[in-house]
Design a protein that fits this description.
Oligomer: single chain
Number of strands: 14
Bound molecules: zinc ion
Strand content: 5-15%
Strand order of the largest sheet: 5-4-8-2-9-12-3-13
Structural class: alpha/beta
Distance between the termini: 81 Å
Helix content: 40-55%
Shape: globular
Number of helices: 23
Largest sheet: 8 strands, mixed
Radius of gyration: 28 Å
């Protein structure tokens, strides 16, 4: 302790002697890099274990993160606000560092949301002696020193000049640090994205800004248009429903062996009693269009982003009728679909236990039992938004044991791979989805006695893999090749669900699309709404639903069966 105080007083003597704001900013940067970034350097050392030969690259990474942090502070600290900004960031960084070091969490947007929703009891549970000591030593005392000794701005122009000079110097330093290791940085940035999330306080600040923007956007949204106000839940059903809907990513229907693909990409689903709907068209050719569109009632032709955001979607209607909804995301986000629902981010190790460079879809099943058990007797819909076959780096979408088809394309630069290599890595990722979906089904089977269980999987859009020279997706719908719009859709139903495999099988080749999802979800939860009447023919295969409606005289025509 005495040693630390001695050091601090030497430091402050130096500061008093040559007190320019820029120098103080650099000192605070050095202090934060040394005291609040242990997790960051720990992760880096996990990826690149300490070896003499690797030392230059490790040093370069240290310079890289330090220079970026210095630039960040030089940009945001000005005039009289400098001392307060630095003091604030010293305290924030010490807090964030404590939780990162102690619990391995990342202070991302979800974490900030959690913090904002923490109640006093939960907050008390998080306090500890270690936290207090660390906050005092690395947060409050240095912050107090800065407030005491940080010089007032001398001359605005001079101050600006000095900061710009330092920013320039930092940029040169960055260039010098990166240039000898460009290949190393390319792989570090691509393969170890998560590591950057530990950069403190830059990533913390980025998350806080993102959170703030999100709150502002929610606040200024137009009043929500309510839908299906005539809807009512018919029933009652004997058992509460438990449905897991998997929203797939970049999966092509023709690459599923269930649909006749010559390579065995569905070895596990083939053993489950599933129905593969072979003729389903997507709403869009990108995640940003397809995901909000499939949950909206607008349909492909009527779809408009703003319109969809400002009116209720299928989840809202279900929620209004007492269905418990949980959205877990391992993709990007829910694209506005789950804005009003319980939402959990599985793209970082905070919640996802299966992260190895990138977080795996299978991690989304973790802890689901608790969620279900806490909602005994209630209908539940869980949406799992997959990373799936997101390209172009298909080879990164699956763990090693799924490298069944070889040789694979091991780069995102598809032009450097042969057709066979591209196909193989893409198909291995489908194989991983097969494993994931089969696990979802096995998970549901545990609840099969007490609940009406079902899984519905549908992908958001497909992918071009070199057909006619096209790659990836997002082609305008009118000219989009079928590889981008023909998506896989798979249904599994437990023994108490309202539909059975036998009932559904005759309809497996029926022309369906994302437009049908809205009413499919409503009917699956036995919600009767006028707006879904037009879809009776397909959806009335729900026999419970049909018989109740018939008794009520609501169905006039006989539904083809
Ligand atoms: Zn997508």
């Amino acid at each position: 302790m005495t040693a630390i105080f001695n050091r601090l007083s030497t430091l402050s003597t130096f500061l008093i002697r040559s007190p320019t704001q820029s120098r103080i900013i650099l000192l605070v940067t050095a202090f934060i890099m040394l005291t609040a970034n242990w997790s960051l350097f720990e992760r880096i050392l996990e990826i690149y274990p300490f070896k003499l030969a690797g030392l230059p690259f490790l040093l370069s990474l240290a310079v890289f993160f330090s220079a970026l942090t210095a630039i960040f502070f030089l940009c945001i600290c000005h005039g009289r606000a400098t001392r307060w900004m630095l003091a604030l960031f010293l305290i924030v960084a010490s807090q964030a560092a404590y939780y990162m070091d102690q619990f391995g969490v990342i202070v991302d947007i979800v974490m900030i949301d959690n913090i904002m929703q923490t109640n006093p009891q939960e907050f008390a549970g998080l306090l500890s002696i270690n936290l207090a000591i660390r906050t005092l030593l690395f947060g409050i005392i240095p912050a107090w020193l800065i407030i005491q000794y940080c010089p007032k701005p001398s001359n605005i122009r001079q101050e600006l000049k000095s900061k710009l000079r330092w920013i320039g110097l930092m940029l040169i330093l960055l260039a010098l640090a990166i240039t000898p290791f460009t290949a190393g940085y390319a792989s570090f940035m691509r393969e170890h994205k998560i590591t950057r999330y530990y950069a403190n306080p830059t990533y913390t600040t980025y998350s806080a800004i993102k959170y703030l923007m999100q709150q502002i956007n929610v606040a200024k949204a137009l009043p929500l248009k309510h839908l299906a106000q005539d809807a009512k839940m018919i029933g009652p059903s004997s058992r509460p429903e438990l449905m897991i809907m998997v929203v797939g990513e970049t999966a092509r229907a023709d690459r599923f062996s269930l649909n006749g693909y010559h390579k065995e990409t569905n070895p596990l689903l083939a053993k489950q009693s599933v129905v593969s709907l072979t003729n389903v068209q997507s709403c869009g050719t990108s995640t940003g269009v397809s995901v909000p569109c499939m949950f909206s009632s607008l349909g492909r032709k009527g779809y408009d982003k703003e319109k969809a955001l400002n009116q209720e979607n299928a989840l809202d209607v279900l929620f209004d009728h007492g269905v418990q909804i949980l959205w877990r995301d391992n993709n990007s986000d829910s694209k506005g679909v789950a804005t009003r629902m319980k939402y959990e981010d599985f793209k970082s190790p905070t919640l996802n236990p299966s992260c190895e460079g990138e977080c795996r879809d299978i991690g989304m099943l973790s802890g689901l039992d608790k969620y279900i058990e806490a909602r005994r007797g209630k209908d539940i819909l869980i949406v799992l938004h997959q990373m799936g076959n997101h390209g172009p780096e298909y080879y990164r979408r699956y763990p090693k044991q799924f490298e069944k088809f070889k040789p694979m394309c091991m780069t995102g630069e598809l032009q450097n791979c042969t057709q066979q290599e591209i196909d193989n890595s893409y198909d291995n990722a489908i194989l991983y989805t097969d494993y994931f979906l089969s696990n979802v089904i096995d998970f549901l089977k545990k609840y099969d006695n007490d609940r009406a269980t079902a899984m519905l999987y549908v992908a958001d859009h497909g992918e071009s893999l070199g057909e006619k020279g096209f790659y990836l997706h997002a082609a305008p719908y009118l000219i989009a090749p079928k590889e981008q719009t023909h998506v896989p859709a798979i249904v599994w139903m437990g023994k108490h669900f309202d539909y059975s495999q036998q009932q559904l099988l005759p309809y497996k080749d029926l022309a369906l699309s994302h437009d049908d999802l809205f009413c499919t979800l409503l009917v699956a939860f036995e919600i009767d709404a006028k707006m879904c009447a037009a879809k009776e023919e397909v959806l009335m295969q729900n026999l419970d639903f049909k018989s109740v409606l018939m008794k009520q005289g609501a169905i006039k025509k006989t539904v083809a069966n």
